[in-house]
Records
---
Amino acid sequence: MPDTAHERATEFPTDPTTDRRFGVFSVLVLIAGVIAAALVSWWLPLEPSADLIGIGLLLVLAFLVVEQVSVNIDVRGGVSWTISFTEIPLAIGLFVAPFQVVLAAHLIAGVGTLLARRVQDRVLYNTGAEILEITTAFTVFTVVGDLLRGAGPEWLAALTGAVSAPISSTLLALVAVHILGRRMRVAAATKLVSRTLVLGLVNASVGVVGYEVATNAHDGWLLVAAMLVGVWALYFAYAGLLREQRDLEALSEVSLIVARSGRRAAARPALGQDTAAAVRSDDWLGVAHRIKDQLGAARVVLRLRFDPQSPMHTVVAGDALPDDMVDLEATGSRSDGLLRLPGSHVRHFRRPDALPEIRESLVRRGAQEALVVPLRSASHLLGVVEAHDKLSRWRGFGQADLRMIGTTASHLATALDNRRLLATLRHDAYHDPLTGLHNRPGFRQVASELLGSSPDSVMLRVDLEVQPAISDALGYAWSDRITIAAGRRLRDVLGPDVPLARLEGGAFAALLVDADFDLAREVAEKLLASLAAPYPVDRLTVEAGVVVGFSSSTMSEGVLFTDAAGVPREGGGSVPDVDELLKRADVALRAARSSGEKYKAYVPSMGQMFLRRFQLVTQFRQALESDQVSVHYQPKVALPSRAVLGVEALVRWVHPEFGRLDPDEFVPAVEAAGLVDALTDFVLDKALVKIRAWLDRGLRIGVAVNLSVRSLANQDFPDQVAAALERHGVPPELLTLELTESGVMADPARALPVLRGLHTLGVVLAVDDFGTGYSSLAYLRQLPVDEVKIDKSFVFGMGSDLGDLAVVRSIVELGHSLGLVVVAEGVEEDAARDQLAAMGCDVAQGYLISRPLSEERLEAWLQARTTKVRGLRDETVLTLLS
């Protein structure tokens, strides 16, 4: 007979309205049962007999026995039915006892079992349902018996009455499902009723056959006993299979709950937060309730550690746990015996036979027995699962329960370990491994969320500049230590709640929420003061430069924004995103560095400059192809003979929109965009074409071309130059390649092999802007160069600054001592030329001789200011007229 039970309504939290509806429905069912019992008692009055007490006791015992061997069947609607052999004693009771005795025996056994199991939330409903079952059975039994009297077997009435009882309770249970608001399809309800009918018919048939055999056959009770043993054996086999099926379903459901929770956590990674904060407690509460239901336990406790540094997170399903047992670590109970079990297998403890330490732990939990299994990964305790007090068996937890909780714990341990691994991967994906701060993707996500909720924010960009010489001297490990220390100082100044990221190298970014430029300037000054303080490195102290740029999210400008790929997009005046704010702050930082300031705020004009630079870079290749870019030449003459030795090739760009552009504006942008190779090839090709044309006219005039850092890092560059010289038929000594000292020192290990390869070709190598580098004397002897060019800043100051005069004189003497040709740039006055000639300087270049000239003007200049000495072609010389 299905004993309808509102078991799974407590598995997951239900709303109070549903509970109230079910409570009212339970009262109505009980009232209906009492009224029905009263009517049947009036219809079938009790006839007292001396045998009724004994019969009643036997029926109570029989009902108690079948209650203890029941099977629970879960229905997805949220309700479970308990199916047992109740129909067997009921069918016998229809034969041997009046209605009142059978009803009393059934209520004593059924309600007593519920109370013994401490299932109090469904006593009223089950009491009413059991009364209606007995009244239905006796009503059908009496009516069918009257109809069959003299026309059919008596046992058919008892069989029909016993089968009607489970049918009535099942129909009542379907009404309860509807009252609870659970969804149950018609097909599922029909299937449940049919199964109940089959089981009821089998059980009722066993009862009727047993009674008939025992009363009508000689020693029939032996046959009945054998039949009951066989049915019970079949029942236990069926119950075992059903238990295994339900265990598999429970494991599957637990796995699905944990997987859904993990997917939700992965969809919204809690960057910068404790991992436990991302865990949905109701998911784990659902897991605990599912385990509780499957074990039939009074309470299940999950103690889970989601992070090695975080405390255990406790989830309780079922009976409330004493307050001092919920957070054992906070209450100083970390030495609790059930939390210090070794290994990862299931332990079963009963209070009477447990060790004192374990007994104390059970007493503190208010539990008589417990199943405990630690959750472990390879090296960490992930948590503990506890199940307290078996409700559905008088013998307590059995082997099936141990297997079930052990397997479930293994699944949970694997799921928790996977979650920890995913959390680690998410953390590594969004954090910088060196400083532990956010990286660019992590910062973008956190900052985007804050900008969405608080658009009045300021983006800070901080650059920590450590001299390359310090990194070379101390090594990159020490540079990393300085970067780590800088990150800590930034965090100390900004506080723990400000999003902070290391973008790359010594570049950091932070977002100040609900801030304006005044607050940003105040914070910038604090950051500068903190970061500029010396960094102790062993016994040394290292200083680093700091530059700060910042931009406001509330500043609108009528310019084109760019997307992540750098392509302009419409959107002037809208709230910028994180990448836009970072870009603006970076523009402000570059502006501060260019102007020599420590910090600078972004203004729209900087955006116009950035857009102009962007346009120059994107239009540069087209400019090369459309002859917007040209090469001008500035002559160089020998001192004191004034013979024209060569020219320096200088690039010029006449932009159709911006007009004539200064090389200092577009060349750095072209270099930063990686297009300098195209520029170098263009100028080199123009220079070689010019040299070849002069050679064809009998003139030996060399051309100097400036090299970039990128060319010095290209190991194939000497081969490219050799191929160009051969293609144009130009002697290598007529080509001069000028390089800056800082360009060589950017990466000496890669630059020196390139320079040696060029020197082997016979190309003239010159060091441009000599005297401004930080290691001129130390590296000059190592460079395979032929010329040094005195920086024009020293030449300009010779006439008024004795220091500059001394520097120029020293460079001339140093160059000559090393066998180098010395060239002076920036010669604009006769006095300077004469001074240089007196010092022994070899070559002069500057506005006194000529400004940079286009090809046409250079030819005119050569014709107007030179004379040609007749002779052999290889002896032709150009001499500058006074």
---
Amino acid sequence: MSQQQKKPKIRTKTVITAHANSDFDALASMVAASKLYPDATLVFPGSQEKNLRNFFIQSTTYLFNFKSFKDIEPESVELLVVCDTRQRGRISHVAPLLDNPGLRIHLFDHHPDTDDDLEAEQCIHKNWGSTTTIISHMLMENGTELTSEEATLLGLGIYEDTGSFGFNTTTPEDFQAAGWLKGFGMDIEVIKDLLSHELSAEQITNLGELLQNATNHDIHGIDIVFTEISTDKFVPDFALLVHKLMDMEDIQVVYALGRMGDRIHVIARSKNADVNVGAICAAMGGGGHAAAASATIKDKTLAEVRDDLFVHLYSQINPQIVVKGLMSSPPVTIEDDKSLSDAVEVMTRYGLKDVPVVQKDTMKCVGIMGHVTADKAVSHGLGDMALSEYMTRKFETVNVDTGLYNVMEIILSHRQRMLPVVNGEDIVGVITRTDLTHMLIEEPARIPKSLLPERRRERNIASTVNNRLPQSMIDLLKVAGKLASEMDTEVYAVGGFVRDILLGRPNLDLDLVVEGDGIEFAKKLVDELGGRVKAHTKFKTAVAILDDGQRVDVATARLEYYEYPAALPTVELSSIKMDLYRRDFTINALALRLNPGRFGQLVDFFGAERDIRNKTIRVLHSLSFVEDPTRILRAIRFERRFGFQIGGQTMRLIKNAIQLELFSKLSGTRVMHELQWIMNEQDPLSCLNRMQELGIMKAIHPLLELTKDRIQVLIELVKVYNWYKLLYLEPKAEPWKVFILGITMGVKREQVPQVTERLHFTKREEREFLVLRDMIGEALMKLMGWKEGKSKLSKLYFILHPIPIEGVLFLMARSRKEYIRRNISQYLSGLRYTKIEVTGNDLRELGIEPGPIYTKILTKLMEAKIDGRADTKKQQLKLAKRLSIDLDNNNDESET
């Protein structure tokens, strides 16, 4: 182990830090704060500015003894001092400290308030040009002495953040602080060199690109310049280039966008008091102040970020259009105790697509009921059900003074067709998608393309696909795309295959959807790659089984509808959107374009990416579980597999489906199919426990409720099964047989057919299951009499050998005696493979007449070998000869 590894971590009560991607003001304010907290440890958060990084490495580390957070013992920290920001999201490098019990926080900042601001014991905030200025005035009042190096560093912070006193955010206090620092030897030449150094050839090229791409936009009388640069690597000193651009072109307001790798960096500068670039960058996840700000954005294109900026600018510069001028008032509402039929009647009478649901005898909006959902529910015979069971409970509202951008974001981006307008808790009006459309026709420039669903679902993830899939699969996808183009149609990879690409999980089960003839496409695919096709004409699907063994499921884009609750689907031709809409959950309603030219574009109509980020399982519509209750089991399976959480609305719909006893309408075959999938999961017990918690085990059959004893055995079964699986032994155990033994433990023999019939076992499966249970019961009795050290190992072998592997695993989990479990383990991993060297031919050569005596002799030989009495073939032949004589004599005596 190296000396560096052995070095103990620093115990310190006080840590001083600043925001990530630090500038000079952040660095200087930290050093200034160290004068107020002399025993503190300075933790540098890192910077992306090249000149700052070089200066820090060459000078500041040496002079001010900065540390990395990894050098600190987090538990020892009692006080956290944060400079030049108050935002929690901008100090992720010290985030673990925020969990310290009783942690005190002191803040020093000159940026505007944000929703992400930390709560603090002490907060010093002033709207001055820099944070360094704020702390410098405190040092002035304290009579603090500085070295010339310290004064120069603090001066750098003030000069940079005030634009060398050229920004309109500069205050008299900034000049006073600089004058005070000059008295301690602040070196203005050093500051000038660091802030105005000569540009390199590469920087000149980048500046030229920014100049070439600059465009002017008149937004309500204010001239704003947008420019951008695109490169696969980080551009150092991007902010310096923007500063040079402003000076060269005499620009008042500029937004510079730099695509660097997979991120968009935004640098914003403003000399116009009407444009607060800090507020706009903060709304995009960044920070800064009115004159200078920045943001770093992931998972968006340059065009999408530009669109967002335009919207924020329109909203900020001319925010006069508010909800009050758009809403329809008074709203038509319905009370939450009314039925679904009542809701249909109200919406039909007033020609509404949605209606707000209010709490009985109040105007408090508690939900939104959709006409399509209510109509469907009535067609399923649920007209008398309370509409509160199927209304949407998760929705957004706005107040009468809300600006246009928020309305657009909710209606266009979040796809909430109707937006309730509230005053306090009471609904006073509504804005519909139609209302918004009519307004936007008047001012189309207000529509941000990034908020249009068409744009949001077309993010290209080709690089992710290429990084996370094997080359053979990528080649297959591209061949499929080429064939689709030749057929003048579109093909998509869909469902779990796409979901797992985003999750970074291995999944080579490829499902394709063709906006055309899926069966014909499958035939062309095997013509191209070799293989055969299994077609299912009724469902317009096919399976292409390629020569390399890869299976590809191919479907025609289709819409499934259900004639009655829990029915099998009826299939109609449709588009990719409708094909995705028929799927179970949003996270599975994803498609990936494969056609050349659009390869890798992600199609996401229903917010799947958002739900994946939020780790949420959410159904696509309120009647999902009514139409197919097996989706409840799939929801649990996905929740446990991915570590997600079933969404609140979806959980409520699950409980409603169970109350309606919809599981009783499901065929045993479909229930058993889903149970088998659950029992194939890595952690089936977690799924079964969740089913028990929700009352699903009882809903499937009352005899399947998980008792305490069953849960205990299932815990052991999971361990035993996973242990066996890791050994890669043959034969492989079928997990559903293993776990069905666990969940039916304690069910009386005469009651077992009730369970097997409910789960639609075939007669053969039922017979084999009953025989297996009987064998297990007999073996349990025999094992109780088997004693380690007293009973022969061969006896254990002959107890276990006739039992199928699933039964042996159950016995191992079921046994409470450690020595029996240990010996069953020995049996599974080696003993059961014991073979004797003597065969029937050897017995014939010994002159023993064939017959039942062979079985008896071979059994005795196996017993002797296991117990170590006949290890070699010679010993076994000798024993066989003696056994044949003894058995013959016994037969003679019995005949006598």
